[in-house]
């Protein structure tokens, strides 16, 4: 029926990481997404040094 996979807001480098938080805080124009406690705005490189998969 033409279903497609919904887009994720999770950065690719964060896929599978247990530290990913991904909840937006604030109101209106001040609303911002908290990616994780280590890198609140997300990691900009290809491999995050704090990435940790499920144990």
Strand order of the largest sheet: 1-2
Q: Kindly, what is the distance between the CA atoms of the first and last residues, rounded to a whole number of angstroms?
A: 37 Å
Mean pLDDT: 90
Shape: flat
Give the SSE order as H and E letters.
EE
Low-confidence stretches: none
How much of the sequence is in beta strands? Answer: 5-15%
- Structure summary, number of beta strands: 2
Verbal overview:
This protein is low in regular secondary structure. The chain has a domain at 11-44. It contains no helices and two strands. The chain has strands at 23-25, 32-34. It has a two-stranded antiparallel sheet. A hairpin with a 6-residue loop joins strand 1 (23-25) and strand 2 (32-34). The mean pLDDT is 90.
Question: How does the SSE layout of this entry go?
Answer:
Layout: E1 23-25, E2 32-34
Antiparallel strand pairs: 1-2
